[in-house]
Amino acid sequence: MTDLQNIDVTVVKGIGKETAVQLADMGIHSIQDLMYYLPYRYDDMRVRDLADVQHDERITVEGKVHSEPSLVFYGRKKNRLTIHLLVDKYLIKAVFFNRSYLKGKLAPNDVITVSGKWDKHRQTITCSHIVFGPHQQVTPFLPVYPVKGNVTVPALRRYIENALQKYGGTVGEILPKAVRDRYKLAPIQDALAFIHFPKTEEEMKQARRRFVYEEFLLFQLKLQVFRKMRRERTRGVGQDYHLKQLKQFISTLPFSLTNAQKKAVNDICADLKSPYKMNRLLQGDVGSGKTVVAAIALYASYTAGFQGALMVPTEILAEQHAESLSKLFANTDLTIGLLTSSVKGKARQEILERLQNGEIDILVGTHALIQDEVHFSNLGLVITDEQHRFGVEQRRVLKEKGENPDVLFMTATPIPRTLAITVFGEMDVSVIDEMPAGRKPVETFWAKHEMLDRVLSLMEKELNKGRQAYVICPLIEESENLDVQNAIDVYNLLANHFHGRFHTGLMHGRLPSSEKEEVMKAFSANKIQVLVSTTVVEVGVNVPNATFMLIYDAERFGLSQLHQLRGRVGRGSGQSYCILLADPKNETGKERMKIMTETNDGFVLSERDLELRGPGDFFGKKQSGLPEFRVADMVHDYRILEIARADAIRFIELDEFWQDDEYASLRCYLEESGAMSGEKLD
Ligand code: ADP
Ligand code: MG
User: Fold this and answer.
1) Are 170 and 4 in contact (CB under 8 A)?
2) Could you tell me the distance, in angstroms and rounded to a whole number, from the CA of residue 540 to the centre of ligand 2?
3) Mutate to test the pocket of ligand 1, among 292, 316, 328 (most ligand atoms within 8 A of CB)
4) Of 10, 324, 523, 529, which has the fewest beta carbons less than 10 angstroms from its beta carbon?
5) Cβ proximity of 575 and 548 under 8 Å
6) Nearest ligand 1 atom to alpha carbon 324
7) pLDDT of res. 66
8) What is the Cα–Cα distance from 646 to 216, expressed in whole angstroms?
9) Using CA atoms, how far apart are residues 182 and 53, in angstroms rounded to an integer?
10) In the beta sheet, which residues pair with residue 411?
């Protein structure tokens, strides 16, 4: 195998120096690269009955040239060749653009095979491909590859065909026989031949299945080995928490934990106890009860004699968390400190001192927690909430404040399982996929803009019941200024509309943070009933009396973001409503609105979002960090991904894996990928 990696592509017939440069630009350097450059689709060259073909489909037909082809020149240097072709009983037209030389090669009664796009109304094929002769001579599936520069698809096909002919028989197998047998996967040499030049659909599928599995397995092995190595090298502290005391604490909670919460608590406690450093992601939809789980974890750590830190993205959230923790810990002698940038002077000094001498057991705060002046006496557990809001750097600094503390990341952005096991493959993941009993799902409606009056009267009905409302303003991409302007316009409209009856407040990203906090506090205290806001309100604020949300131009938001926004309501016992004001222009937009009205389940939504947007787009292009697979598709091949992952986890625990010849190629691959060092993985 390594041989082929070292043989330059120029040994292949037809590849000269110049072509080699062009191929290098496509990432093809060696024979191995060339043979592993896989098609992303095939042109189906099988002959079909014209009666079954839909308009605009690609087809291949065999026919007899009926009359002298006619050639028409037009524009500058352009021409069109039209052939009347008798296909079975149909007389159709076959059109070629700018291939005038074909005229001399075709005469009436010649049998040819052509393929191209079928215009059903005009009974015409716009041809891309011609074979002078009957169909038997045509390959049933023509591979199509992504190409760049001067490299054409037909040329690449030839290069690959030549390479396969000459070297195909020497390609080494990376998958152990036992694995291939188990899943009936084609051996590599067959698979390569099948994937490039399949003779049947079955061969095509067979080959694809093998490469998908191979790709996923290699990827998962890399992740799992990396994780194992890192785990073994970063020793944390085993936190010997007090089980009885912990159970006692859990029994004082005003509700019993959901099964999903219990499972998460167990996962976390096992991590705390183990000598390895916890590196866990806790995923749970808004309102699924992550805070309690965090509190239990913090309490466990406390009973083992450690301090804990809870870091959140905004001051309001810090205050809210400090408050809810104080309530939960009311019957314990645990001490909570709050540190934000508005804690200043003497008060700040005092907190810092009490933290350093161990009087404060749990410190809640914003990024103020990671400043140099903050020193813990014995930090054992760090929890960050809404982790997607923090930079990696901030999390690292915080981790370094303790002696390898255990780390728990919490996020309310449900990440489809599919992505979770790839993106967070090197993290452990706990999922709270169950809501506490008795939650009323938010009733969601989709309204057109012309219905705004009716929406506002619905809103007023809620306000009259003493409830509060959020109004989320349109999002203008790439222009915060316009966002702000929009918010101001909507604010003016509503302030005017509700004048004398309800108080309207305005919130947007351009307000100084002190003012933002002030507005939020006023809303919290019900001094403001209608809060007009840009998406800054998205992050986990909790105002249970708010039961109504109106989202302007909802089609501009992604599903996950809409769901996140909607999570601001439905937090109390009253029925809540969310109105999506939207006139989506395309099907995807309509589909999104429909999905929102159909489900409140963040995980279902995230899966649907992923389907609509595709994996690359899911996290936004810039930060996607998603691995790119050649053949595999994380969404559609999810089943295989799960199997490969389970296999990878199992393999690396087997002695055979590390010793037997069968696995030597896989070990070699891992060695080369750098995963064995456990230091960095890209
Ligand atoms: P999250 O942070 O996941 O959005 P919270 O932890 O803020 O959710 O919980 C939302 C609300 O649900 C809180 O008021 C909390 O007290 C309550 N809650 C949490 N767990 C349960 C449970 N098992 N049964 C009933 N209510 C619960
Ligand atoms: Mg929360």
Assistant:
1) yes
2) 6
3) 292
4) 10
5) no
6) 16
7) 94
8) 11
9) 39
10) 283
How is residue 136 written in tokens?
Answer: 């038997």
What gap in Å lies between CA 317 and CA 286, rounded to an integer? 14
According to DSSP, the β-strands at 58-65 and 78-87 are: antiparallel
CA 292 – ligand 2 centroid, Å: 9
CA–centroid distance, residue 293 to ligand 1 (Å): 9
Which two three-digit tokens encode residue 52?
Answer: 């079954």
Q: Whose CA is nearest to atom 26 of ligand 1?
A: 436
Query: Average of pLDDT values for 513-541?
Result: 83
Q: What are phi and psi of 297, to 5 degrees?
A: -60, -45
Euclidean distance between the first and the last CA atom of the chain, given in angstroms as a whole number: 23
Of residues 379 and 638, more confidence is placed in 379
Which pLDDT does position 70 carry in this prediction?
92
Residues 6+ apart with CB under 8 A from 348: 339
Rounded distance, CA 188 to CA 191, Å? 5
CA atoms within 13 A on the CB side of 260: 17
What is the share, in percent, of the chain residues with pLDDT greater than 90? 51
Rounded CA separation 677/107 (Å): 68
* Ligand 1, CB cutoff 6 Å, lining residues: 255, 257-258, 261, 284, 286-292, 412, 436
For ligand 1, the distance from its centroid to the CA atom of residue 294, given in whole angstroms, is 11
Residue with the larger pLDDT of the pair 349 and 402: 349
Which of 101, 95, 93, 91 has the alpha carbon at shortest distance from 81? 95
Instruction: Give pairs for 636-639: CB < 8 Å, separation 24+.
Output: 637/212, 637/216, 638/417, 638/418
Round the average pLDDT of the chain to a whole number and report it.
87
Instruction: At 15, give phi and psi (nearest 5°).
Output: -100, 105
What percent of the chain has a predicted confidence (pLDDT) above 70?
89
Q: Which atom of ligand 1 is nearest to the CA of 291?
A: 6
Instruction: Supply the pLDDT for residue 425.
Output: 63
pTM of the model: 0.67
Cα–Cα distance between 263 and 269 in angstroms, integer? 10
Q: Flag whether pLDDT at 541 surpasses 80.
A: no
Cβ contact 124:93 at 8 Å = yes
Distance of CA 234 to the CA centre of its chain: 28
| CA neighbor of 140 nearest in space, from 65, 190, 202 | 202
Q: What residues have CB less than 8 Å from 527, skipping those under 6 apart?
A: 503
What is the full DSSP assignment across 409-475?
EEE-S---HHHHHHHTTTSEEEEE--PPTTPPPPEEEEE-GGGHHHHHHHHHHHHHTT-EEEEEPP-
d(CA 152, CA 563): 45
- Side-chain half-sphere exposure of 218, counting CA atoms within 13 A: 21
Q: Whose Cα sits closest to atom 22 in ligand 1?
A: 436
